[in-house]
Amino acid sequence: MEKIDLPPLGPDDLPLSLLDMGCSGRFELLSQPITSNQPLLPQSTLPHGLPPIGPDLQTEVETRFLRDPGWLPIHNTDSAFQKFLKLAQRDRQVDSLLHCIVAPLHSGLSVVRDPTTGLLLDFAEVMLEDTGLSLKNSLSLQRAPASESLRGSHTSYPFQPGGMEELTLDQIKKRTEAEEDIDFENGLLTVAPGLKAGMDFSDKDAKAPMAEVNLMSLLSTFDDIIDARPEREEADVGESRGEGPKLPRTNSLDDLGIKDSVPPPATAPSPSEATGDGEKRKEGEEKEGERKRWAVPVDITSPCDDFYKRIPEPAFKWPFELDVFQKQAVLRLEAHESVFVAAHTSAGKTVVAEYAIALSQKHMTRTIYTSPIKALSNQKFRDFKATFGDVGLLTGDVQLNPEASCLIMTTEILRSMLYNGSEVIRDLEWVIFDEVHYINDAERGVVWEEVLIMLSDHVSIILLSATVPNAVEFSEWIGRIKKRSIYVISTVKRPVPLEHFLYTGNSTKTQKEQFLLLDSVGNFLTKGYYAAVDAKKERTSKHAQSFGAKGSSHSTTASQDRAVWLSLLHFLSERQQTPVVAFTFSRSRCDDNARSLASMDLSSSQEKSEVHSFFQKSLSRLRGGDRQLPQILLMRDLLKRGIAVHHSGILPILKEVIEMLFSRGLVKVLFATETFAMGVNMPARTVVFDSIRKHDGTGFRNLLPGEYIQMAGRAGRRGLDATGTVILLCKSGVHDMGDLHVMMLGKPTVLQSQFRLTYTMILNLLRVEALKVTDMMRRSFSENHRDTQTHEKRIVQLKQTLSSLPPLDTEGQLGDLLPYYHTLTELRITNQALQRAVLESVSGLKALSVGRVVVVNNTQHCNALGVILQVSCDSVNRSLTALILCEKGREDLGAEPQKASPLPHLYSTALFIPEGPCSHTVQKLRLQDVSAITSKTLKVIPDRIIDNYNKRQQPRFRLDPPGQAISTATQELLRLAEASPAGMATLDPVNDLQLKGVEVVEGVLRRRALQDNLREFSCVHCPTFSEQFLRVQERMTVQEELDKLLFLVSDQSLSLLPEYQQRIKVLQALGYVDRSGAVQLKGRVACQISSHELLLTELLFENTLSPLAPEESAALLSCLVFTQNTQTCPHITNTLQESIDRVLCVAQRIGELQRDCGIAQTAEEFVAQFKFGLTEVVYCWARGMPFSEIAQLTDVQEGTVVRCIQRLDEVLKEVRQAARIVGDSVLGNKMERASLSIRRDIVFTASLYTH
């Protein structure tokens, strides 16, 4: 490179120079003033090819201040102190306090051009939207990107959740009760309160109006830029052609913007157009009337022949032909639609996920794949990494390739990213939810709902699930909250059909006793069931013989179990039906069964060699001592014989070795718990159920159909087996046929909402003003029954009806008309409640016996007397047959209702008395038709009355006179009615029927008081009372329906609202939020913590962790992640014991506060969540004790210990982050040291799937 000699600097030269930053291709602008005799700075820091390097800041500070004798002299300390003051004390610059950031421009200039020639005509001021948006004040995707792009920040706003409507202008304009109108022009104060003089704001001399200014005139001097002549010519031509007027010239840009946005005046439509519009409007109204269906079931019965025409170049190709349901799903993905795919295990749901990932790579967007469990995330990472390459993994303790286009993570991490406004959401095209039926999980199901609600509008959703009965209902909910269609693709077809057998063998002689119970087509064979019962009966003693499972115990001895397993596995290996997965619902039973097969060897010598080399290679990354753990030595011996165990107590690395060996066919028999059925496709030839009963945390129960189908679905390898075999062991006896039928052919469990409020959710939403917790509750699956759209349409109609009703006259005598109506309504409700109580009581039903005189009120009769002839025996739909008085000619059921008083709607006890000739009818009455039971009874002959009445209903006997029995009964009823026309004495619920319940007694007293009140109203004496009362009734009926609907669409009807208010009280009492709901410092700290947020935040603010050593802090916090009960008693230091007591004291205080605020959980239940069984184990582990030694300190299995320590590391990270928010750097560093002390050896060995 040639050296260029530059002339010396002159007075006009600016002190600027460019500095080439190494080989990065970047330049830096230097602006230090340079003296005249100093040459220009060099153009390059270093020779090309090496990056620039600066001195280490820490070294420079140490050299300059700590090691310099001039700074730290031994004797002359005064001068050193003066130097320090000079450094520490700065000049005060008061002006700097007034400095503020320049507000972003809210408008810009836009060029107005001629549309044909492109000639510049004018400039218009355009208002800029989304200016000044940042992650601290906006939910918009238009805001400036953040520096913390992956996980987001606790101070960031989330992005706007899809389907959550932003406030409309009308809603913003609506004033609350506290707001009032302010006139900003008239009546304003000119003198401030407390001052004598003020300001005069009146316009003293009106300014002369400014002349019009045209922007073009200002630019007219630039002739070389714009020539005005062509513009004028174009304008002339435009006018001659009859074009619309040009843009108006104004004296301000604002005016131009406003006038430009005004739409042109609409011309009157022609008659034909008007009719067309009317028809369209009608059609639109009809469509609006129908409720929109968001879930769209897709037909997969007919073949998809035009698939390759519609997608000639698919984003991903498979080496096999896709099934119809897979093709339909791919077509929906190509159209960027959301899908819910429900299919059996091994049906090929992963194809849909793979296509979405390929599509996002083609579109250069991103996909997130979520799974319910971490182990499944690791397995999917390996599979997708092999297929797509550009795949990342995010779990609590691992972060691999976070910039990848496809990210695999647990659902909890995605929730945290959504709340913290992660920048990943911007580029997101798909979110894939695997194993969606996990939403039924009581503990973690709420996470799925939160994520689905919080996802942004531009993100499409793919839901993969086992077959569920309510897939359409669930999709309807998602579609409604996201305002988009969800295509439901459901298939019950199995690629490999299953055959289900009962196995009763327990020795070499009986090892072939296998009975087909459910064939591959789905027929339940009772013949096979009875054969199994007979086979089992032959070997049971006379005393134990019974039918089915009745009377047989569910427990068997270890030797009996061993005999059954040995005979079964010999039988299966002879028939080459391995590999076998044996589902056993107890971890200890899994281990015992595997150990009992010491005599069995299912591997060939070549397989033994493969297992040995793979085992050694996989465990080579462990330390020497860890390789000699008892569990590892035992498993190595089992694996060499083709046997393995898989449950949560097994070390994670060992579980991965077993899974990999199983998928390679080297494990012949795998004893596993239910978790093995979740997730990754590891099919076997045969599945065996050790039992059909399991403990679900509360008690023992039979397997649910969904659980059985999920596990049985592991049988049958696609492409290898014609059918899969499922075997149920009948060890102690044959299971009950009804139980088996329900379990095998019953419907799987429906997807149910497990939505609940957590403090983290409440605080995360409260810190963002634009999002409300009630919005989240309203959109939860638990509130899916609310049909708000229909209600809102009906509300509009009712409001219109209300406004069209005539006004009420409440002047003069009618002044108390409304109170009269309300009293009457309350009396009616009280009467109905009492009537219901009487008719539901034993004494009330006894009183309704044959011959009892009752008062009947229904659509046909009003206060008519009747006598009971028959009482039905049906306890559910109880009914009465009665003879009732009526007017002549109104005996039929369809007749108009007869009136006892001019106002039948009023409360009146006046009995019905026929005006003309008296007649009768015999009718069947419901209990609610009986409004009162009188104290009178009549002697009647029911059969004769009913027979005579039925006979006279026939056309030929219609004119016959009524029989003697009917005539007598009718005359008696008429006599009773005439004797007491104002109302007969009725049976008193309290005194006569002996109903002493509080509600009944209060109801009777209330009824008397209301009846007395009714006599005091003056409105009943007004001549127009009848007409006005009908108006009130009409108006109030509409108003009551309106109030009911308004309540249903309001937040007050949310089922979780009371609990939300209780939790807010707790947060206010603890100081997490203030009275206005603003999140305080404690609340912001709690947002960082994912579980047990209240306890952990309180411990942080009470400095419970400060006096502890790092290893003691880790040991104490283990109570937050350990959930099992343990029999061993930990030996711990006094400091740690004191800290445990403080934790329990804080937990007790929080529990009592929650109880006081109304939350159902007791203080004892809250405290019992925290278990300190692993305190000693974690303490010793953090101090460096080998794993083989800490395993001896507890009865908890090794796998559980490892999992707890891994989760503890996540808690320590959260506490470290929280300590930094508070500003406690000492505690933050302590948590970091604690985290480092536990992150070692076998506990944190990298997963085999990720390396």
From TrEMBL:
Keyword terms, alphabetized: ATP-binding, Cytoplasm, Helicase, Hydrolase, Nucleotide-binding, RNA-binding
One GO molecular function term of this record is: RNA binding
Per its UniProt record, what PROSITE patterns does this chain match?
A: HELICASE_ATP_BIND_1, HELICASE_CTER
Its UniProt entry gives the catalysed reaction(s) as: ATP + H2O = ADP + phosphate + H(+)
Where is the sequence biased in composition, kind Basic and acidic residues?
277-293
BP-aspect Gene Ontology terms: nuclear-transcribed mRNA catabolic process, 3'-5' exonucleolytic nonsense-mediated decay
CDD domains, per database record: DEXHc_SKIV2L, SF2_C_Ski2
One of its Pfam families is: MTR4_beta-barrel
Query: What Gene3D superfamilies does the annotation carry?
Result: 1.10.3380.30, P-loop containing nucleotide triphosphate hydrolases
One cellular component term from this protein's GO annotations in UniProt: Ski complex
Residue limits of the Helicase ATP-binding domain? 330-486
This protein is called: Helicase SKI2W
